[in-house]
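Teaching note: in complex prediction, the entire set of molecules is handled at once rather than each chain in isolation. The prompt given to students was simply: 'Predict the structure of this complex.' The entities are:
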Amino acid sequence: DTAVSQTPKYLVTQMGNDKSIKCEQNLGHDTMYWYKQDSKKFLKIMFSYNNKELIINETVPNRFSPKSPDKAHLNLHINSLELGDSAVYFCASSQGAAGELFFGEGSRLTVL
Amino acid sequence: RKEVEQDPGPFNVPEGATVAFNCTYSNSASQSFFWYRQDCRKEPKLLMSVYSSGNEDGRFTAQLNRASQYISLLIRDSKLSDSATYLCVVANSASKIIFGSGTRLSIRP
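The expected output is the structure of the full assembly:
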């Protein structure tokens, strides 16, 4: 059983479209995250949720909207996609806010 | 100044060599420290946590120097399978987990 699963793994879309990436963890963790890894391989935190409450919201355009329906799920919706949004988006979870992070396999988004 | 800084490498060393990476962090209130490993086109995975007293796991040794605000990773008797990007990770008092940009290691036969 995959511990942190995210879908889709690959997403190719046109500029201006709206898309969502879903994430689910079956580890019973209370904290979930979205990270963005750009072409230079730098992993940057975007959002963090603890028990469905937003605790970290980095300087991310408001076109990005996370949603946590329950503590096992954290989805990412992106409006009006831009070329610069092309990256790999990783979902992760941990028990507590500074515990070991378990990552999903990543969702590679390409905006044309 | 970046919150977590690493030498990007690449480090290209022969099999069997010993290699060391350093990482510096800017927030003196940082509380937890880790090394993660990321293989090409894969997700990062925890390699080891870093404790104040230093810790060892097989061929891997991690050290923390709070006074100078750096952590290190030493790999002894390197194997081909050690080729990867090594990410320094720091968690601060606001529960924010920050990744360094990673150090690429390539082990040659």
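Point out the following to students. Chain B has a mean pLDDT of 92. The longest strand of chain B covers residues 84-91.
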